[in-house]
Amino acid sequence: MEKLDPYAALLGRILLSVIFIMAGINKIMGGGEGTIQYMEAVGVPGFLF
């Protein structure tokens, strides 16, 4: 079973990164109006989105 440890760690990292990648894609595809408003509310120019 110890032979699979490096592969299990790699698979776990890949699956965890997929969560964040999908969230980012959904945010960008959704237009990001809420994100832009939040950025501007805290002093970050919205065009950086």
**In sequence order, what are the helices and strands, one letter per element?**
HH
Distance between the termini: 45 Å
Low-confidence stretches: none
Structural class: mainly alpha
User: How many distinct beta strands?
Assistant: 0
**What number of domains?**
1
- The percent of residues in helical segments reads 55-70%
Oligomeric state of the chains present here: single chain
Q: Mean of the pLDDT scores?
A: 90
Tell me the β content. under 5%
Characterize the overall form. Answer: elongated
- Mind describing the biggest β-sheet? none
Radius of gyration: 17 Å
Q: How many helical elements?
A: 2
Output the keywords.
single chain; 49 residues; mainly alpha; 0% strand; elongated
How does this model look, in words?
With 49 residues, this protein is mainly alpha-helical. The protein has one domain. Helices cover 69% and strands 0% of the residues. It has 2 helices and no strands. The chain has helices at 5-29, 33-41. The mean pLDDT is 90.
Quick structural overview:
By secondary structure, this protein is mainly α.
Secondary-structure blueprint of this entry?
Layout: H1 5-29, H2 33-41
